[in-house]
Specification:
heterodimer, A: six-stranded mixed beta sheet, B: 16 helices
Chain lengths: 362, 304
């Protein structure tokens, strides 16, 4: 079932949590709401669920207005960040809850409830743990119970609030893949909130990047990663170097160097920032045209297939981070304190961003 | 082995702890001695004295004092007042705790403070408030007289005074408990399609049941034992508006010491039962809390 959000606004006192937000979730897709904390993503999710009223705007489920529909009639499944399992009930009863509270006429028989719950326990791979209390489970197991409980009522939409936020790194990775597989199996329209860009890019069909109550960009993981629409998205997805300078006739003057920016051919002496991903650089022992930036090596980390270098610019002392394949690094043959020239191979230039601090490398 | 010691400080021997951090033997024994003497003088001796005095004239006299019609009517009235005041405060306490802990609204802190008012004010004042409101010369006195409604020197006044004095017990017990538990479980229940009532019965109530029981026991004990506020509004009409505590005082003032203490011993027994119940509930409460806390986050990793 598709979700449409139009012109949504929500403020808590003076704090504007959501500012004119539009969102489209096509039926059956798995969409990630990605953003730093305070960007409004959880508020948006809670408003879609009906747990929070919107100040303005509209929510449609499959084209039908659901803005004023009470939570319990929306038929959404919600998975809370801290699971919110019923602590005094067994795992089985937790999952059965949504079926047991139905009005008598719609309530399945005890046998049907048992069948549904056992199926779900199998789906989340916890068949043997139905009798346990939530307190007797690990974090990852609790999260899966929370998911099974949400799925038990056959929701039209599944909403997950930072579903892996409280788990340690290894379990998080496993559960992430498992969620992806689960989604392919049950295929319910799902929206999950995360502040972890890797998680969002790896799991979802579509990523919606939020910042300060607005949607910055939405698209497939490839689209948003390869073609960031705003400085914020550029900075938030992946590690990036910033070069402040002046844009003039298709070039950006950065310190003693000049970078190519053909899309700014019309610009005349304008403040701008060039964004360069840490792996979009070439390092050479000698100057390589006007676009190369002179720097000295401050620090080298050589574990893994990629060598990470921290460099100090010769012109203004600013810092540059460069990630290059180990083979190239070996061929280059530079060490700490030595001089190199940095040539950006891919540059994206934005005119003076409103808040340069927000776009620093993530 | 070092990791074991760090991970499980509880296994360290308690003796080692006291030797490095404790006081000398003489200081410890003196402090314990003072505490014990104080306990014996202030708590145990009066308690024992109540029973000694009660049986001073023998078992038959004791029995008679308790079965005397005035005593029986006082006992009935005490039970009746508690039977009205405690459920009233149960509803008020749960409702107050619910709205204070699950919602944010203006005046919330004021409400929390107001709940404590009956504890802060002297019971005599609590009684006077109702006399000033409903007494013959009170605000509503004339109107009540015209309509022939008796509140002061009658059951309604005594119930009101008792309810007022015991109002904080249940709310006070529940507010911190419900605040700590938050409202996520309730939200989860509502999303799953539960109605407000179902959510309360199936999710909220089981989570607060031990705290609620604890508050109920204390509230009941105070409702039956309240003297000051009830004394002001009762009028002390024998066989009509006398509760057990008031009856004890009347007997004592008439130099019927044995009878007075006999009735007092009933109240004392009630207190002892309350204490036993309270301890049991506290133990249960700690057990259910520990069940949630101790396995809070068992490690996901496989042990090496």
């Amino acid at each position: 079932m598709s979700i449409e959000v139009r012109n949504l606004r929500k403020a808590f006192g003076n704090f504007v949590a959501l500012d004119d937000v539009d969102l489209d979730v096509p039926g059956g897709e798995l969409v990630a709401l990605l953003g730093p904390s305070g960007s409004g993503k959880t508020t948006l999710l809670r408003i879609i669920a009906g747990l929070e009223p919107a100040d303005q705007g509209m929510i449609r489920f499959e084209g039908e207005d659901a803005t004023d529909q009470p939570v319990r009639e929306r038929q959404v499944g919600f998975v809370f960040q801290h699971y919110a399992l019923f602590r005094h009930m067994s795992v089985f009863e937790n999952i059965a809850f949504g079926l047991r509270v139905r009005p008598r006429a719609m309530r399945p028989s005890e046998e049907e409830i048992r069948g549904t719950v056992m199926n779900l326990l199998r789906l989340v791979q916890l068949e043997a743990l139905g009798k346990r209390r939530p307190s007797e489970l690990s974090g990852g197991q609790r999260q899966r119970v929370a998911l099974a409980r949400a799925l038990a009522v056959k929701p039209k939409v599944l909403l997950l609030d930072e579903p892996f936020g409280a788990l340690d790194a290894k379990v998080r990775k496993e559960l992430r893949r498992w969620l992806r597989r689960l989604h392919e199996e049950v295929h319910v329209t799902s929206v999950f909130v995360t502040h972890d860009q890797e998680e969002a890019l790896e799991v979802s069909d579509r990523v919606v990047i939020m910042n300060e109550g607005r949607v910055e960009q939405s698209g497939t993981p490839e689209e948003v990663y390869e073609h960031p629409a705003t400085p914020f998205v550029y900075g938030f997805l992946g590690d990036v170097n910033l070069f402040h300078g002046r844009i003039d006739r298709g070039r950006v003057k950065v310190g003693a160097s000049e970078l190519e920016a053909p899309e700014w051919a019309e610009a005349r002496d304008q403040a701008g920032v060039a964004y360069v991903r840490t792996y979009d650089v070439k390092l050479t022992p000698s100057a390589n045209g006007r676009s190369s930036i002179e720097a000295t090596v401050r620090h080298v980390r050589t574990f893994g297939p990629v060598v990470r270098l921290e460099l100090d610019r010769a012109d203004d002392g600013g810092s540059i981070e460069a990630h290059i394949p180990r083979a190239l690094f070996d061929r280059l043959g530079v060490g700490k304190g030595e001089r190199v020239f940095v040539s950006p191979t891919s540059v994206r230039v934005f005119a003076r961003p409103s808040d340069p601090g927000a776009a620093r490398s993530a | 082995m070092a990791t074991v010691a760090i991970g499980r400080p509880a296994t360290a021997s308690p003796r080692a702890l006291t030797r490095s951090t404790g006081e000398s033997r003489a200081v410890r024994y003196t402090l314990i001695g003072i505490a014990l003497v104080f306990l014996a003088l202030v708590l145990l001796l009066p308690l024992a004295l109540v029973f000694v005095q009660a049986f001073a004239k023998g078992l038959p006299a004791y029995w008679q004092a308790i079965r005397e019609p005035d005593a029986l009517s006082a006992a009935k009235l005490t039970l009746l007042i508690a039977a009205i005041a405690v459920p009233a405060n149960l509803v008020f306490g749960v409702a107050a705790a619910w709205c204070v802990s699950k919602f944010e609204f203006r005046g919330r802190n004021l409400l929390i403070t107001l709940i404590d008012l009956p504890f802060a004010v002297s019971p005599v004042i609590s009684g006077m408030i109702f006399v000033l409101l409903f007494g013959a010369h009170g605000w509503f006195g004339d109107w009540l007289f015209e309509h022939d409604i008796k509140i002061i020197f009658a059951l309604p006044g005594m119930v009101l005074a008792t309810t007022f004095v015991t109002a904080p017990f249940i709310a006070r017990e529940l507010i911190p408990l419900m605040q700590e538990q938050g409202s996520e479980e309730e939200e989860a229940a509502i999303v799953l399609g539960a109605s407000g009532w179902q959510t309360f019965l199936r999710v909220t109530l089981p989570n607060i049941k031990w705290g609620l029981l604890y508050g109920l026991i204390l509230c009941n004990a105070r409702a039956m034992g309240e003297f000051g506020a009830v004394s002001v509004v009762s009028g002390h009409i024998r066989g009509e508006t006398n509760t057990l505590p008031l009856h004890v005082e009347i007997l004592y003032n008439e130099y019927a010491f044995a009878a007075s203490f006999a009735v007092a011993s009933v109240l004392t027994l009630l207190a002892l039962v309350t204490l036993a119940l309270k301890t049991l509930v506290e133990w249960q409460q700690r057990r259910s809390a520990a069940g949630v806390a101790d396995t809070d986050s068992p490690s996901e990793r496989i042990a090496p």
